[in-house]
Amino acid sequence: MCGILAIFGCTDNSHAKRSRVIELSRRLRHRGPDWSGLHCHEDCYLAHQRLAIVDPTSGDQPLYNEDKTIVVAVNGEIYNHKELREKLKSHQFRTESDCEVIAHLYEEYGENFIDMLDGMFSFVLLDTRDKSFIAARDAIGITPLYMGWGLDGSIWFSSEMKALSDDCERFVSFLPGHIYSSKNGGLRRWYNPPWFSETIPSTPYDPLVLRKAFEKAVVKRLMTDVPFGVLLSGGLDSSLVAAVANRYLADTEAGRQWGSQLHTFCVGLKGSPDLKAAREVADYLGTRHHEFHFTVQEGIDALEEVIYHVETYDVTTIRASTPMFLMSRKIKSLGVKMVLSGEGSDEIFGGYLYFHKAPNKEEFHQETCRKIKALHLYDCLRANKSTSAWGVEARVPFLDKEFINIAMNIDPEWKMIRPDLGRIEKWVVRNAFDDDQNPYLPKHILYRQKEQFSDGVGYSWIDGLKDHANSQVSDSMLANASFVYPHNTPTTKEGYYYRTIFERYFPKAAARETVPGGPSVACSTAKAVEWDAAWSKNLDPSGRAALGVHEAAYEVKET
Asked: Is the keyword Amino-acid biosynthesis assigned to this protein (predicted)?
C-alpha cells in the first residue's frame, strides 16, 4: 500500500504551500516508507509515499505518460497490467510498474477506462494540458480514499483522513466504485454489477466454477517482486487462501524468485482458538509458519495508536484491528511487505452467524449486498490500515471483481443455512473445495464454525477490553453520552472509551461523520437485527452475541 495526497485549485502556490504539502504527505509515510515523490503544476500538487511491491527499482511515483502531460499518483495494484499493455503497444512505457498503465489508458480512452482495471486501487490523475483531473476508487473500496474541500475553494484527496483533517473544512470517505471528474463537477458510479441492484439471482450453484474463479483470484495476487506470505487464522477463509496459494506457488514467478515454501502468519493470545487451528492447517500444508503472541495488556497499550491509524471508533473494527496491527509489525520485522488475507467471504456468502436467522433467501441475499457495499467502512478499512501502519500490503482474493460477480450470481437458496440438509454457514464454499481425491484441507477445518477475528484470537481479549473500558468510563459519563456525543452516541462504556480517543485525534464533525453507526449483533446491519427479537437485548458485535447459534454464545441478560 502507498499513500497519496493531491490538492487542486490552491489560491496559494508559494514555496510555503509546497512545504505544507510535503509536511502533510509525511503523515502518510508509514504507508509508503520506500520513497517520497511530489509533482507541482501551478496550483496543483500530487504527492506520493511509496511502498515498493512491483518493480521496486524504477516504479517511483508520480508516474507519467510519454511527454509528462499526464501525471498520476496511485495506491494499489493492477493485476492485469500486462494484458492492458498489449492494448497500448503504440505507447512508450518508462517503468515496469503495474500502475503506469493508468496514465496511458487515460491518454487512449479518456475517463472511460476504469472498468478495464482488474485490481485494488485509488488514484488521482492530472491532465496538465487543460488542468482537469480525475480521482477514482476500486469497486469495493479495498484501498482507502478521502475527499475534502478547503475554504479557499481547493479540492483535496488523500489515502487517509489525517492528511486532510487540519486543512479541510469538510471531508468525506470517497465512495467505492466511483470516479470524480473535474470536467463534470461531481461523482459518478463506474462499477455497475448486476448484484448492486439487489435483484435476486437464479443461477444454479456450480462448485467447480466457484472453485476455479477463486483459484484464479488467488494466483493473480501472487504478483510481487518482494517477500510475501498469507495471514492464517485457521478459519475457513484464510485456510482456503493459504491452501490455494500453496498449491500453485511453485508455478508462479513469485515462487521461482522467493522459493516454493509459503510463509504463513498467525496472532493470538496464548492458547487461543486461532493459534491451534492455524498451526494445524500450516502443518497440513507444510508452510513456514510464524506464530505471534500478545497479551491483553499489550493490546490495550496499543489502542491509541490503533485508533489513530485505523481512523475509526467502531467497536468491532478496533477489536479486530488491534491484533492485526500488532501482527503486522512483527511481519514487517521479518522483511515481508505483502500478505494475502481472507476478508470478504463472510459478506459474500453470509458467513456471519446471525445469517442462521435469515427468514428467506430474498432477505439473505439483500443482506449480503448491504454487507458488501459497506465493506469499505469496516473490514477493508481494518485490513488495509492496520497493515499499512507498518508498511505491509494486504491483498484480498475473495474481493476479486470477477469472483464476486460469479458468487453473487448464485441463487441464494444455495447459500441459506439449512441444518436439515447438513448445510452450515458458507456451505457453498466448503463444498466447492471438498475434494476427496486431491484435498485442499482436512475435513474438520473445512467445516469449522465461523469465528470472528476478534473472537478467535482469544475470547479473553474482548472481555479484557470491556473490563478496561469499565475502569475508564464512569456510569455518569455513559449516562450523559448523548449530550457529549450527539452524533452516533456510544451505548457502551467500551464504545465511549474508543470515542474519546478518536475525538482527541480527529475533533472535527466531518471526521466523526465518516464512521457508520446503528444497532448491530454479531456484525449484522441494523436491518438484520430485526430477524430475532432476542438480539435487540444483546447488541454486541462479537460472534458470541448470536444467541442460540454460536457454540460459546453469551448468556441472555435480563434488561
From this structure: yes
